[in-house]
Write a structure and sequence with these properties.
mainly beta, about 5% helix, globular, 2 helices, 24 strands
Length: about 300
Amino acid sequence: MNQVRKFSITNAKGETVSLNNDEDLFAYSPEGLGVSFSNEYYGANGNFLVSSVALNQPVFSIRVLFSPEKNRYYQKYHEFIQFLNYQPLTLNYSIVEKGTFKRDCRLNTLTKTEINEWNIIDEAIELDFLTPWYQWIEGIHTEYSDQLGDGKIYINNDMANNEGFHIYDYVYEEQNEESRGLFKVVNDSIYMGVSEGSPLEITIYGGETGVSNPSWELYSGSELIQNDRYFIDIPPGYEFVVSSVPQNQFVRLIAPNGTVSNVYQSQDMTKTNFVTIPIGTYTLKLDTGAVTKYRLRKEMVVV
């Protein structure tokens, strides 16, 4: 029988342990998958007006049975605590036909008891969630290469292959030079009123010739709502990465050999900086002819 949902945990070393292995380690009775808020109101002539809305930090709990294989109860438990030693953690929640959702967390509680009357070890795990559930949505833009003729180039609405997007239904080929570097970004995150935008990660590749002073803008229709720019030269072969993820906000220049430099000081402070994407449909414009990529962290307070 196919399982409706599956859980696994990934530690800070990138190691993953399944919680649904019937012969090794099996988890049951999950709790804390819902959502709750702390809402404050003030009264006005018999009406109640919202003064503040806050998402309560969820605690996920689940019970775990450790395998009795070859009477290795305590060995399995010890292996598990060695795995949990590398914090923070990521809880992976896979749902049939919905995909896998992730949520960053830290260990709150892990019980330790003796073998019970059923000859098993049955323990409780509690995890403090640090983020909403999320999935990464990616789009990539490559350098324009000329096509035969001067025909129409049509819009690309596929978020999974968002390459060479134009904000019009079509453009003529000779117009492509000024229209390239545009992404249609659709954000259908679920925040229930507790956040105004989702984190974004921008990567610009130096390519063969390098890139100078990269910038990008976010439009709602024709209205500019956010922007960012950096006074920096990206040498050939390098990568320039900017992240607006709250727990991992950074500006990095990455050399071909993997060396990472923090170049936050190159940010143009006259811009809004660290762009996030509100819920809805927007146009992201990157002012560079280089290969560029964005990753949107689609977030949900409950799935």
